[in-house]
């Protein structure tokens, strides 16, 4: 009895954290929408060379960068760039991983062998080499960046989905669907997918965070977005030369903006995977 | 495996002869350079040359420095391991200690705070950690050298302390979360209740019973990280001027030095396969019920 009331208490706490983290993510989405419409932080690319490296003040909350652009506006605009990279990279990797995992495990045989061969191969190559290879092939740019990230980060999802589908397809409900004449496609779409979507959801959010974090590393390697795009990766890497001059606000604002978003997403994933409904799988 | 590596770097990589010859080379120069590099042959022949290289372990010479690729890798592997291996071992032991201590703790606040602290640690970019610590501890406080390297085994350690600290700090978050989840899963087992019922302390149960039974999943999780010891410290090496595999890789990527890239890829892939094999063998040591077919 005692443990039951404890788990109920735990669930309420978990739910509070979920609502908290989801509302932070929602605020970021709203912010990204407003910056893309030009309502907020529209002065992110206004160059005022005479104001180069102004320390934080009332006019410029986070000071200005080398070209006199408002660092605060660029950090806000950076959330739009980060959300675009995270969303498209995670969507692409989820689509690939989910499709391959479902098809491989459902049809088994040589199709499954092919899927397993593909992901073990990809997994054995250091990710930075893969992404670098793809980035070279496609050239720099925002869309190429998230395509490269999406194409290389689906392995974990595919592996988990494949294992779960193997379990699910032996269940009675799938046999029942078959016995009333449901086609393969129908069995996959209406019967199996609803039972594995929670894996895809968690992996989607993990890949989202992964893409945002790898963007910083790729910016360092010169494989990120084009210079001039207000990305957090470029801002953080810019601090390499700025800190010794006492310019700390570029690093601080980009790191802070990234910290809040990534922490919110991390808290969300952590608590979702801990909560009752998902506990059997994680 | 070799096919994918080959296709990625050959078909999509563009013509390396053009890049090497520079903007103002004549068509003849480019053609002779192609012959020298072997990129004038058909893709099919090139693929077999590559397969031959993997089997014979001879990856030819670097396009940039004309040194033997194997020699370059040989001299880079020492610095990399002296950075990544101690950091990996210390980081893992520290994570294990923290997760056991936090599970052992009677205060539920601590048990709740440790994961949040880990998640917070994980939410800051690796690059931001490096830039901040290099500036603050090395440049501002003068506690460590900013960067540099000494080839003698005895004197290189002073350059390694700060990279170690950062590597351990970054690995702490994910490792503690992983270990606590593995250990707490084990805590729900019946034998734990038995051990507690016969009067063993939580501490003793954790160290002697639960840890032992969790060795299998822990060793799987740990072994997955080993291949990345070779390439994983890329950023630290670059920022701290350590002439290891990471620095080699970055230079190779930035100058499209295909022989070096191919060699590192093949070697790390082989390492991956090798580590997987070792893990399977270790299973039988930790759990005699497992039989390798």
Describe this structure in words.
- The complex is a heterodimer of chains A (282) and B (293).
- Chain A is elongated and about 75 Å long.
- Chain A is mainly α and 282 residues long.
- The two termini of chain A are 24 Å apart.
- Helix content of chain A is 74%, strand content 0%.
- In chain A, helix 9 crosses helix 10.
- With 293 residues, chain B is mainly alpha-helical.
- Chain B starts with a helix and ends in a 7-residue tail after the last helix.
- The model of chain B has no long low-confidence stretch (mean pLDDT 78).
- The A-B interface holds A 121-126, 128-130, 132-134, 136-137, 213, 216-217, 219-223, 232-233, 236-237, 239-240, 243-244, 251, 254-255, 258-259, 262-263, 266-267, 270, 282 and B 1, 4-5, 8-9, 12-14, 115-116, 119-120, 122-128, 131-132, 135, 139, 177, 181, 227-228, 231, 234-235, 238, 249-250, 253-254, 256, 261, 264-265, 268-269, 272-273.
> What is the oligomeric state here?
heterodimer
Give the helix tally of chain A: 10
Biggest sheet layout of chain A? none
Percent helix of chain A, as a range, is over 70%
Task: Give the mean pLDDT of chain B.
Answer: 78
- Share of helical residues of chain B: over 70%
Distance between the termini of chain A: 24 Å
What form of chain A results from the Cα inertia axes? elongated
Largest interface: A-B, 41 and 43 residues
Radius of gyration of chain B: 24 Å
Distance between the termini of chain B: 24 Å
Helix and strand pattern of chain A: HHHHHHHHHH
- Continuous helix count of chain B: 14
- Quantity of strands of chain B, as a count: 0
Class of secondary structure makeup of chain B: mainly alpha
Low-confidence stretches of chain A: 276-282
Strand content of chain B: under 5%
Could you report the average pLDDT of chain A, rounded to the nearest whole number? 84
